[in-house]
Amino acid sequence: MTLQSFALTEEAQTAVRRERGNVLRLAIAQALAGANSTVIYATGAVVGDMLAPSKSLATLPISVFVVGMALSTLPTGVIAQRHGRRAAFLLGAGAGVLAGLLATLAVLYASFWLFCAGTFFGGAYAAVVLSFRFAAADCAPPERRPRALSLVMAGGVFAGVIGPQLVTFTMDLWPAYLFAATFVAQAAVAALSAVILTGVQLPKLNSATNAGGRPLDVIARQPRFILAVICGVVSYLLMNFLMTAAPLAMKVCGLSQESANLGLQWHVIGMYGPSFWTGRLIERFGARTIVATGLALTAASSAVGLLGIDVAHFWATLLLLGVGWNFGFIGASAMVLECHRPEEKTKVQALNDFVVFGTMAVGSFLSGGLLSTFGWNAVLTLSFVPLIIAVMALAVSSRWRAITTA
Length: 406
What we know:
By secondary structure, this protein is an all-alpha fold. The chain has a single domain, classed as Growth Hormone, Chain: A. It is built from 17 helices and no strands. α12 crosses α13 and α12 crosses α14. It is globular and about 60 Å long. The N and C termini lie far apart (47 Å). The chain crosses the membrane at residues 26-48, 60-80, 87-106, 112-136, 148-167, 173-197, 225-244, 264-282, 289-309, 315-338, 350-368, 374-396.
């Protein structure tokens, strides 16, 4: 072995170690930061029901959470492009700490609108957290990017345990103020996540990164980008649409908060648990096949929910919904990676997330009104409409590809 080849080998080994270290730190941060979303979904509708001036506004805090996600995606992309992803990550963690503190004050002073402000900042934090998956892809060579993206998402498995258990063990610690201690703990976990993120070593910005690339309207007109956005929108829209209503629906059906917490725990595990294998499945079968599988599982979750309203039906619905989201959303994210050049990545990824979360906000607002007016079955039945649209888009795309490659 020559000195030059030895140096190249050492460099390659260093790059692999850096890649693994980054993915590990991002996965740990995903686990901690993911608890933020789980806590808000577990408590948002219940606390909203306690504080809201009208029962029809009970799920508004979760809808505001989604609005926070949508409005934060483009600024997050701009900050990441100009100052680096780590700067965006730390600002997001600060928003997570603020979310927990505002929610605590809202409970102490019985302020519904202050609670909505807290969930807004929680949504901003969640938007930043979801960009971890693309940061992991930045650290890996093209052939390993779906796997790196998937492994970081796998950190959410632990969020599925941390979040609900955080609620269960802290919600009564401050007896006069239900959930106040939970939101203090939420702020502390966000601060710990920030400490983990300071050790992430991402590729440095350079002139090519900030060169701009093609105009966004040109990129957005690509059929494969449109398909990726549709699949991402439907996967996330339906996950949020059903998960927003489920805890309150369980309460209306006479089930306990502990049952709702456990249901959400299994749901979040379903969301992130398959991530240990989703990247490999995408490499083997292709992103479109994995997305189609995710849509089928989401349809199955709604069908199971329509069969009954006991604990088992809710838990099965939430678990299947989580796995369906995993396949659909990670598959769609892998498709986005195929739609941009290196210098376009942050703005294209931010645009994709903006459209996904913006559309998701509409579903979140509809969810609470539908649940209070028409009931849980109406929420489940309506979920089949977006599913049909996504399946048709996949079918049209497959036919178009077959014609163009013939």
